[in-house]
Amino acid sequence: MPSEIGQIAWRHKSVIDIEGWTEEELYFLLDQARHMENVMDRPIKKVPVLRGKMCVNLFFENSTRTRVSFELAEKMLSADVVNWSVSGSSTAKGETMRDTAWTLEAMGADIVVMRHGAVGAPQYLASKLKRAIVLNAGDGTHAHPTQALLDMYTAWKHLGRLKGKKIALVGDVLHSRVARSDVIGFKTLGCDVVLSGPPTMMPREVNELGCGYERDARKAVEEADMVYLLRIQRERQQDGLFPSVDEYHRWWGADEELLKLAKPGALVMHPGPINRGVEIASEVADGPQSVILEQVRSGVAIRMALLYLCGGGAR
Amino acid sequence: MKTLFSGFKIFDGEKFVNEDSLLVENGKVAKIGSGLKCEGAEVIDGGGKILTPGFIDLHAHFRDPGYEWNEDLTSGAKAGAAGGFTTLVAMPNTKPAICDPALIEYVLSHGKAAGASRILPAGCVSKDRKGVEMAELRKMAEAGAVFFTDDGSPVATSDLLRLALLYAGKDLPRIMEHPEETSLCKNGQVHEGRVSAMSGLKGMPAASEEIDVARGIALARETEGRIHFTHVSCAGALGLIRQAKKEGLSVTCDTTFHHLTLNENAVISSGYNSRFKVNPPLRSIDDQAALWEGLQDGTVDAIVTDHAPWHMDDKDEPFQEAPFGIASLECAVAVLLDYRTRKYPDIPLELLFAKMTSSPASLLPEEWQQLGRLKEGAVADITIIDEDRTRIVDCSQWNSKARCCPWEGTALTGWPVATYIDGRKIWQDEEEA
Amino acid sequence: MAELKEKTKLMNAQDLSRVIRRIANEIVERNKGTEDMILVGIHRRGVYIARRIQKMIEETEGVKVPCGELDITLYRDDLTTLFEQPMVHSTRIPQDISGKKIYLVDDVIYTGRTVRAALEALVDLGRPSCVQLAVIIDRGHRELPIHADFCGKNVPTSKSEVVEVRMQEVDGKDEVVICERNAE
Fold this sequence. Notes:
The complex is a heterotrimer. Chain A is of the alpha/beta class. Chain A contains 13 helices and nine strands. Chain B has helices at residues 73-82, 101-113, 137-143, 158-168, 194-199, 206-223, 235-246, 257-261, 265-269, 285-296, 312-315, 332-343, 349-354, 358-361; strands at residues 2-6, 9-10, 21-25, 28-33, 42-45, 50-53, 55-60, 85-90, 118-123, 147-148, 174-177, 190-191, 203-204, 227-229, 251-256, 302-304, 382-392, 411-421, 424-428. The longest helix of chain B is centred in the middle third of the chain and has 18 residues, at 206-223. Chains in contact: A-B, A-C.
């Protein structure tokens, strides 16, 4: 079956966010992820593409899932992997990020996968590194490009080309890097993107994100092809942003009643880990429309494709 | 000692005069005339350059005492001179905070010892800048304080601000208020608007500045005191100040060189470079335009640097982790002149110069109000500007210890090339020699 | 930018068809039938050639032998010299290759590096009982000890030449040409 997508010149090395990526580039990456997913099904789940390359997973924030996903992707491409976890900010540790950058160069790192609590941190690190590239695994509340890419990949596998399809993102958009990246990605693919959630958890200038805001989750989800639930952190309740988990769940949580308002067969998505009974009811999370577990698998494939396209090759 | 400045476009603090020569004798302006000659005087040939009263910066941080690796009174005074400023008001949020006459004298004497720009100390409104008890305002005024401010923070309680306004009345130096409602700005990083929506950085709403300005105006009205709002950055606050002035209240304000020439988009276009992180934050394009309107209609009384120096080690961090502040003494004037040429060429230079000379001078205590004007008998504080000089901003050559700023590497046109205080040259651009 | 100028036409559509038919017959002959064999075409044109072989075997033997496609991009030994990563195509073999006789099919064999990569890929997919190679053109200049078991035509070439096997499915017509690289 000939691929409808042709070779394009891949211009990205470090990936901080997907702002400015073209629709063509996104579909090219999704297509390549498809072939990477094939590798995951083989008896020997390894290809030698990144042999001899060193990947450093530099995680300043705890995250087992994302880190393991990257690690699996890196190992399947035969890269050498170093996991470097830093708890607390670099200043608390006493080492500035500039010094961390130079240590990485000295170690011979080729690819740095970085997650950090401060917006702009991976960009900062990329500006200090001369050789290695940086892949952003999440910076503060700003961006989580690989999450958005795997979300688009999962949706594409089920729904095909996404132009004109509707996606409703429900939850704490204000503090969500996943939401920001998904908005950019799905809009680039031509989707109708609608945000919903309590007004205290939306950016004031929501129109700057280029999509609509519908306070009523039921209206937001109407005729949607994809319903995407964002994680609610319980600390936000302590900050007073919403009065109780129960009130949140009744008005913005995804239960079967809410799902009925979407298109029949609409995909239910979530970046994980899920808070059962808060943003999503168990019946929906475990139900036939949920692709939440598939998203996890997609994550490895997308990260493999990204590592191959950005991290391989000559310098 | 006689110096004759000949062949200059002379700005006297209010307007450009017809005369082109100025004679300085014993540190004072002896005469302003056309084609003056003088026996035995050192002649400085202007070649059409601009000569103004030395620029006055009402708001600069020197971190001395307590944080001297970032800046000290000597490096700060030299930086000011190299930026065309002959008088600088030093902010008191040091360690210890400047809240007693001994520390006022410290600032005065160390500033003088630098042998460069004149440094005038500001004192805190509250003891140790804690915002609880009023400091010894009268003693500090007697020792030489020119403003009272808890800058870095607003005066902590309305009660304390009211007491300070009453106590200072109309005969003590003015209260300079940093207008911010702190509970709205907790952990804030940028302006609440376009950039915070797109980047996820926590926003500081403009309403915070408006609320504190409204508070200050209400108290100034009630106490008949004099209040000055510093680094005003948003349209809403300007509107309130404009109204208060119409009403005849003693309300004044300043804005910064960077708020006039940058807006929030710079945060994103620079890739979240921490050089653009400042409090109050760079605001929207509309707020920026409102500041220029405020300059033209007299709402804004002065332009200040709010020079906030940080050593590269501290400032060069990811955006969210870096401290707030822009260090700009050595390029602020050029940034403004260059910006005006490009964006507002119809605004007369006199307007901008006035807001850096006679207008800020009028807000200082009486003994200093003669600064900022050039007329016979005035103190010979002079700044020479070459409108056509183009230079690239190179922070590595700065006198200031804070070797980074948002304009690093940019070519700007319109630079100060020499500064004099009391008729004595304190700085000259190497190329001028 | 080097330009390719067509120099010689080696085969027309009919010639190519005869060559493929001969190769198909030789494969079946050497395999002693169609048992336990899998045709595997190497992307890109090898895939189409393999399918034609499959069709011809079906015509003569009445059996549709399994035919798969193999993409060797991830196994290339020259990736670290390229600035732009080449696109990955699909690898799909309809059966487990372990214990089977694999007939790799490609259009041209030159340095032998593509075939080496294909062997490495196959080894990761299973343990075939043997692997043989069928090509339309062998143009010499081997850099590795690799040979073609079935060959359409031996064509000595110089390194400045390029051999193109053009196919209806990809290029719109069937022919084999030699082109000269004109360095501008």
